[in-house]
Amino acid sequence: MRRKEKFIEALLALCAGISVFTTVGILYVLVSESYGFFATVPLSEFLTDDQWTPLFADQHFGIMPLVAGTLLTTVIAIALALPVGLTIAIYLNEYAHPKLRKSVKPALEVLAAIPTVVYGYFALTVVTPFLQQIFPELAGFSALSAGLVMGVMIIPIISSLSEDALFAVPKSLREASYGMGATPFQTSFKVLVPAASSGIIVSVILAISRAVGETMIVAIAAGQQPNLTANPFVPIETITTYIVQVSTGDVERGSLEYKTIFAAGITLFIFTFILNNISFWIKKKFLQKYE
User: Fold this and answer.
1) Contact 172, 205 (CB under 8 A)
2) Burial group, residue 164, by CB count within 10 angstroms (0-12, 13-18, 19+)
3) What ranges make up the beta strands (E) of 87-211?
4) Would you identify the CATH topology of the domain 64-290?
């Protein structure tokens, strides 16, 4: 029996070690490969230049247009997914019949299983023409179309995790609220949502991380034009889209242009690393608050 416990303990430690070593390996590759880039391009230029044209004759290496495009599509996605996802979570948790909840929740999560390339062509062929009827100035490729479809894609993340957080709230809080004469609406927004706020915030941050790392939707529908803009009606390019563009094989391996994908990659890694740590910190803070 003792040997079995030791074996299981070693197996679990191995699994944990694999994930840690994988992360360390990814970080090592990004840092080592991007070192050659930053040896040529000053970090100040990388962070402050407002143009990103490493594949053009007039080369500029300012990452800000890619960061701006990533942030713009992410903000649009969260602006759609957060209210819709949270509303769905509250409805399933407080208003829907248990049988309806058991059938609707799995069906909703199917959205997360749809290939993102399908979402991309849906954004390009359906959403963009529809938006152009409302906004005639909208370009054929735009951050708005890509961001909205990304929002639809991450709705299951927010709705499912938020619903789980609401469901985990002790029934005594619900009963106390109803006992004081509160309506289901008041109970949902004044009792349950604050009590489950840590789980809801974590779900939002995870959804943001998912949107930041999305590739195919923005590659197909956003236009692949690195513009430093906050205008959602024009084409943009994100960090992930640029990495895909260079990785197609047209750029010589080992060249400065090739090394830009590692510089962009480490920027994306730092961005998501910060988001994940914020998520962990918020969760820890709220758990301590309610202990």
Assistant:
1) no
2) middle
3) none
4) MetI-like fold (1.10.3720)
Q: φ, ψ for residue 30 (rounded to 5)?
A: -60, -45
**Torsion sign (Cα): 252, 257, 259, 265:** negative
Q: How far apart are CA 167 and CA 169, in angstroms?
A: 6
- Report the distance separating Cα 146 and Cα 205, nearest Å: 19
Closest CA to 144 of 227, 69, 225: 69
DSSP string, 77-119: HHHHHHHHHHHHHHIIIIIS-HHHHHHHHHHHHGGGGS-HHHH
* pLDDT tens for the 291 residues of the chain, in order: 677 788 888 888 888 889 889 888 888 888 888 888 888 888 888 888 888 888 887 888 889 999 999 999 999 999 999 999 999 988 888 887 777 777 777 777 777 778 888 999 999 999 999 999 998 888 888 999 999 999 999 998 898 888 888 888 888 888 888 888 888 788 888 888 888 887 888 888 888 888 888 888 998 998 888 888 889 999 999 999 998 888 776 777 878 888 899 999 998 888 888 877 877 777 676 665 555
What are 282's two structure tokens? 């918020």
Question: How would you class 211 by CB atoms within 10 Å of its CB: exposed for 0-12, middle for 13-18, buried for 19 or more?
Answer: buried
Cβ(249)–Cβ(190) below 8 Å:
no
